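Standup notes
- DV: blocked on the single-chain target, sequence here:
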Amino acid sequence: MASVKTIIVGGFLGAGKTTLLAQAADLLAQRGRRVGLLTNDQAPDLVDTAYLKQQGFTVGEVCGGCFCCQFEKFLLASHQLLDDHAPEILLAEPVGSCTDISATVIQPLKKMAAHRFQVAPFSVVVDPLRLREAALGWLNASAELLSPSGAADWHAFAARLFERLQAEFRARKAEVAHLKILLTGFGGSLAVNLTSTAGEPSFRAEGKQARSFSAQMLVNARVQLEPGPLREVVENVLRAAEAEDIAVTLKNVECFSPARPKPTHRFTETVP
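- DV (later): unblocked, structure below
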């Protein structure tokens, strides 16, 4: 069995890892290569996973901890992608909090599964403005949206949502590391992304952008706030949407600050 070219791309939150891997996967697919992607987060309901699947990519996910702390899950998910979809190239994106990736992920992978994974040199996406550390609150949420009085314009809804969230974060002097939402269920999808409190959100629409009475929404927020205040901001802004006749039903909310990583393995030497 031939080993699969495996490319692991790291970087801080909001540096552009997912955008890079999506563009790489698209280019490779256009050249006739079979590509699998593996995403990672500290909690479920990851916008990136859902968005990449919406684009038609084959995607696996490791949630509940970073690759280094959940190495067995990482290995299992990687094997599952290979067994189920036989990609020629595997693109893996560890969450931004993953630590010392060469020693805790790449070298163990080379040692334990070289027969299946041909690991490329480790790549890192760098945004100079993000070379800093901050105590971040993390929030992942899923919600059902309903517009009982008429078909809603979900692009306008998302724009108002981001405007209010940015205003709340500015008022609290809370810097946004990453804020993403994904809206689906109206014949297409709409992804919105923000990487600084003072920045402008980017909108990526796919498929039919029809008005509809309902939609599903995923929210991922990484903000320089304690988890309690972060959750309060998001829930208050969603409640404000109900004043505009958009009923919001939260299905799942996880809000926390990640603990210091505790890698499963830590190699002190490189593996040939």
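- Follow-up: Residues 4-128 form a domain with the Rossmann fold fold (CATH 3.40.50.300).
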